[in-house]
Every structure is written in structure tokens, then in C-alpha cells.
Amino acid sequence: MRAIIQRVTKASVTVGEEQVSSIGRGLCVLLGISVDDTPRDAEYIVRKILNLRLFEDESGRSWSRSVMDGNLEVLCVSQFTLQCVLKGNKPDFHCAMPAELAQPFYNSILEDMRSAYKPELVKDGKFGAFMQVHIQNDGPVTVELTSPSSPTDLKQMAKQEKQQQRKEKTRAKGPAESGREKGSQRSRQDLSASSGAEGDVSSEREP
User: Fold this and answer.
1) Distance (Å, rounded) from C-alpha 36 to C-alpha 123?
2) Could you read off the pLDDT of 2-11 as tens digits, one per residue?
């Protein structure tokens, strides 16, 4: 599965003369589903869309908050052309999931996203229609996201995410607090040694 995620100040979808949906500040997501995609791919994409830190915090620090942190909106648009393979100069879309299978799959992605977030803040276009997507990109900020191609890739990415989360927690604590933790650990080790945990050294001393 492939997603193009854009941070926007506003975005909308129009079909003919009718505006189907619109959002204010948040994310516009163009989503391409492949023939090989599974619910695991959908789970990964939904989690990433909702947790990517593409927004600033109250103090103006960039890349600090997700769309959920800011209570912002998400506009999803199904776009099978993201699964394009070029044959010379001609696009080929055999890698895209057929519409009759892709529509229920896409709807399930929207349901998962609304369940994980706030239903009223997740909008979408009109599946299979010829749409005009109006995007006012903020930055510009655009991120391309592809779901892992195999279970091994997924495990590796999950491991990297956990490592990154640990690093972020350490940075958030600051050097002073981290130093206190290290000092506390050393104190516990010293106490353990003096209490005989590694052999009662006090018994070797004269009374």
C-alpha cells in the first residue's frame, strides 16, 4: 500500500459541480491499494497517518505533534494511480487492486481510522469517481509512505520504531534527569555489593 501524505491548511474534493467533502488544517492522504495488500498493510498505514509528527507544538517547535495531538482533520482520497508501473512512457495499473475488491478494502481502512481517532474528523472523497482534489499544501510538507512488503520488514520497522521511541523518551527527560537515573543505578549496585549480594565481604573484616 502506498500513501502520499500532505500537510494542508485546507483541502476539498469536488465531483462535477458538487463539493463532496472538505477539511481545514490537517492531512490530505492520497491512498493507493495494491493487489497484494492485506489488513496488516492497512493497520500499518492507518497507524502511521495518525501518528506522524508533521506539526509544530505550542512553542513553535517543528515535527512535534501528530494530527491526533492537534485534534486536526484527515481527508482520504482513493488513488489507484499510485500503483502505476511504467511500460516505456505508458502507465500500467495491473498492480492496483481491482475496484470491486478495493472499494470494501478502502472502506475498512476508513472505518479503522475513524475507530482509532474521531469519526467526525476523518473525511473522504467519492470512490471511483472522477474527482478534483483541491489542496493547499502547508510548507510544503509531503511524505511518501509505503507499507512493509513482508512480515520480516514489518518486524524490523517495529523494532526501529521502539528504538526511536526510547531515544525520544531519553531526550525528553533531559541530561540532568538521565544523570540522576544513572547515579541511582550506581548507588543500588554499591548497596548490593556492600550487603553481600556478590559475596559477604564484611565477614572478612576484623570485628
Assistant:
1) 25
2) 999 999 999 9
